[in-house]
Design a protein that fits this description.
- α1 runs parallel beside α7, α4 packs across α7 and α6 packs across α7.
- The protein starts with a helix and ends in a 6-residue tail after the last strand.
- The chain is built from 7 helices and 11 strands.
- A hairpin with a 3-residue loop joins β4 and β5.
- The chain has 2 domains: about 150 residues, Alpha-Beta Barrel (N-terminal domain of MutM-like DNA repair proteins), CATH 3.20.190; about 150 residues, Helicase, Ruva Protein, domain 3, CATH 1.10.8.
- Helix content is about 20%, strand content about 20%.
- The chain is an alpha+beta fold and about 325 residues long.
- The structure holds zinc ion (ZN).
- The site of zinc ion (ZN) has 7 residues, from loops.
């Protein structure tokens, strides 16, 4: 499932191509994926792209937004005359678009309002192998009333970490507001006193937004914490280390363009590279990068959990 780094990679990529374009038609090939009236967004211009947790918001210049959740295997891919020669990952379902997985197709005005030259046809394809994702037409004032967004926990977003000393780029900053930022204090409050195992706790979107299985596994390894331990058993130092580890793995994944372990591709249909650099995720039986003992895989909260029993205590 795309997590924070993957959805953020898509957002940053799409932002470059979509802002300023008008939606001129929408072809709906799988009805259940598109919720709402397409007439409400046809003719509107795209003015911004935001991300909330694993959700993506396409803001329009009328009263509506398009809210997108990619769920397990959703993809959003932009194509125009200029990008047509960029080789698509086979994960998009073919060598051209639309593919057999392209269930919603947005036709966009072939030029941005501020550009004079004709750029040819432009399309945004929503692909989804397993068809669990959705695109909803939502009134702007109703967006934050949707449970998915309303209940989203604060986000460990690398571009906003105050103590890191890193200057967030403007692109990073625009996607998350300070009010939903996971501060160390908020993180302590979430972990301290929790009777839940730390790994499923990290993945609970209502507590913390954006972390899924890949980054929960790798952050716990980085912090040397056994994923089965309950939140309340973590010391202050361990909580601090885990907080830093979460930001570190998310930052690393953003640098690698996300993880294409499953079906993730970026806004141009290309794969990310983090899957080749995971610490423990997907590495059952391989030697631990620190102690060389084999990585073990167990089930925890119903999800495959990878860890090093020697390094993680
Ligand atoms: Zn180890």
């Amino acid at each position: 499932m795309p997590e924070l780094p993957e959805v953020e990679t898509i957002r940053v990529g799409l932002q470059k191509y979509l802002i300023g374009r008008k939606i001129i038609d929408i072809k709906i090939r799988v009805a259940k994926i598109f919720v709402g009236k397409k007439e409400d967004v046809i003719g509107a211009k795209i003015v911004n792209l935001r991300r909330i947790g694993k959700g993506l918001i396409i803001e329009l210049d009328n009263n509506f937004v398009l809210a997108v959740h990619l769920k397990m295997t959703g993809q959003l891919i932009y194509r125009d005359a200029k990008s047509e020669n960029i080789k698509l990952s086979p994960k998009t379902g073919g060598t051209t678009l639309p593919s057999k997985y392209s269930h919603i197709i947005f036709k966009l005005k072939n030029q941005k309002s501020n550009l004079k030259n004709d750029e040819g046809d432009a399309y945004l394809y929503y692909n989804d192998l397993r068809r669990f994702g959705w695109i909803r037409v939502v009134r702007k004032d109703e967006l934050m009333k949707m449970p998915f967004f309303k209940e989203m926990g604060p986000e460990p977003f690398v571009g906003l970490k105050p103590s890191s000393g890193l200057k967030p780029s403007s692109g990073l900053r625009s996607s998350a507001s300070a009010s939903n930022f996971l501060t160390l204090n908020l993180f302590k409050n979430i972990v301290e006193g929790s009777n839940v195992s730390i790994k499923p706790l990290l993945m609970d979107q209502k507590r913390i937004g954006g972390i899924g299985n890949i980054y929960a596994n790798d952050a716990l390894f980085e912090a040397k914490i056994d994923p089965r331990r309950k939140g309340k058993t973590l010391s202050d130092e361990e909580i601090n280390n885990l907080y830093d580890a979460i930001f570190a793995v998310i930052k690393k994944s953003l640098e690698y363009g996300g993880s294409s372990d499953e079906n993730f591709v970026n806004a141009l249909g290309q794969e990310g590279n983090y899957q080749n650099h995971t610490l423990v995720y997907g590495r059952e039986g391989e030697p631990c990068k620190v102690c060389r003992n084999p990585i073990e895989k167990i089930k925890l909260g119903g999800r495959g959990t990878y860890f090093c029993p020697s390094c993680q205590r």
